[in-house]
Amino acid sequence: MSGLIMNPPSFAGEEFHVTAQAGGTKGGGSADYGVNGVGNIVLMDNRIAMRVIGFESHDAGYVTRTFPANGASGASADVTSVGNQGAIESYGGSFSLLFELSDSLEATARILAQPYRGPGTSGVLRAVSALRAGFLHARSTSEHTRVRT
Q1: What would the pLDDT profile of 6-40 be if each residue is shown by its tens digit?
Q2: In terms of pLDDT, which residue wins out, 62 or 146?
């Protein structure tokens, strides 16, 4: 239901947005929901801006897995059922800083984290996916039109 849409930090001013959504999956083992939040703050006029993004999302599982309890076998074995199989949980965020280094050069530093828990993922995959990217990007502002306050 959710994910990151990463607009860069902006010197245009402060902005804050929060959205939430809810729903259901027919036969699902839990509710579906998602929440997103974005904030942009100018820390130093036309020199440093910060953007923070966060989200959480849950999609219900719809499979009930039934199997013999405690590894028992045979017709008289006790049976265990586990519902909500296939549920997907995702959350994460991004922290970005925009620096104007001169009238014609900007640099953006960003850290992005987005762990994932869902069917078929191992602990190793979840650990590796926890930090997706961190990078520094610089560009000449003379190539782009920009609103200055």
Answers
A1: 788 999 999 999 999 999 877 777 889 999 999 99
A2: 62
Closest CA to 6 of 89, 100, 112: 112
Distance CA 108, CA 49 (A): 9
State how beta strands 48-59 and 88-102 pair. antiparallel
Q: How far is CA 76 from CA 61, 69, 73, 127, in A?
A: 29, 11, 8, 41
Token pair 């953006």 in the structure block, residue: 108
Tokens of 49: 């801006």
CA distances, 33 to each of 7, 20, 81, 84 (Å) = 23, 8, 25, 15
Structure tokens given for 1: 């239901």
Q: What is the pLDDT of residue 124?
A: 40
| Rounded alpha-carbon distances, angstroms, from residue 17 to 5, 26, 39, 52, 91 | 13, 30, 7, 11, 17
Q: What span, in angstroms and rounded, lies between the C-alpha atoms of 131 and 111? A: 8
Give the whole-angstrom CA distance, residue 96 versus residue 79: 51
